[in-house]
Write a structure and sequence with these properties.
globular; four-stranded antiparallel sheet; 256 residues; mainly beta
Length: 256
């Protein structure tokens, strides 16, 4: 997922667990043609991690953080930033081959062409898409979109989440499906203080800003760093890995 090769870009990867039990991830990106590497983890293989495919977008651009989303049929969607818009591609063979699914999927583009990361998840017939980006004033923020047509077209539900954190920003976001609902995990700052929290919404069309925030890390806010990742086990227990600064170095923690 990270390379020192001068020919590769290292955007924030996304990773999903397939229905087969394999893991699928977006890896490195070519610096010249912006082709997107797709990696797969197979627990039954002698070589656990290997590159299984390459997505060649119709209009290749550098990415900072693509998103993967698995539908009930097993089809995998991959969302790519395209200026102030988002394009979508699909694979029906565990990431080996990709085709265009839908272009310019947002009904309302984000305010500035500086998308940092995308995150998407399916639940109960809906797809929730979060687009984290840097606004024209240099603040990292996030817009929320919802789809009821299997992730092909999206309606904007809530825009500029950072405006809800006076003097702050939304730095990292993640989504996990849980019992027919969406749990959004995020790192946000208010002034110089940052913290990891979650919000649960029953529908992708419900504003995340209206949901109650639940503290995850329970740490001293100035020591908490933006990195965050969330997943659920087979019993439905949710876990969140986050970064916590202990001077003079950093450490990683996991909360469940």
């Amino acid at each position: 997922f990270w390379g020192t090769d001068a020919t590769k870009l290292t955007p924030t990867p996304d990773l999903i667990r397939r229905q087969s039990g394999k893991l699928l991830a977006t890896g490195l990106q070519d610096k010249t043609n912006f082709h997107q590497q797709i990696d797969r983890y197979n627990p039954d293989s002698a070589v656990k991690w290997r590159t299984v495919g390459t997505l060649i977008p119709d209009n290749p651009t550098a990415q900072s953080g693509t998103a993967l989303c698995q539908l009930p049929s097993g089809r995998v969607l991959l969302y790519l930033a395209q200026g102030t818009q988002v394009d979508c591609y699909f694979s029906d063979d565990d990431g080996a081959n990709w085709e265009a699914y839908s272009y310019r999927v947002l009904d309302v583009p984000v305010e500035n062409a500086a998308i940092g990361m995308l995150r998407a998840a399916y639940s109960a017939g809906e797809v929730l898409l979060l687009v984290q980006y840097e606004d024209s004033g240099g603040t990292t923020t996030c817009d929320q979109y919802a789809s009821d047509d299997l992730g092909g077209r999206f309606t904007q539900v809530f825009a500029d989440w950072s405006a809800s954190f006076p003097g702050g920003a939304v730095n990292q976001v993640d989504i996990v499906e849980s019992s027919g609902a969406f749990v959004v995990v995020y790192h946000a700052t208010v002034g110089a203080l940052g913290d990891h929290k979650s919000r649960r919404i029953g529908s992708a069309f419900e504003s995340i800003n209206s949901a109650q925030a639940v503290d995850i890390s329970g740490g001293t806010p100035p020591t908490l760093r933006p990195a965050v990742s969330t997943w659920a086990d087979d019993d439905g227990v949710l876990y969140c890995a986050f970064k916590h600064t202990h001077e003079p170095g950093d450490s990683r923690h996991c909360a469940g």
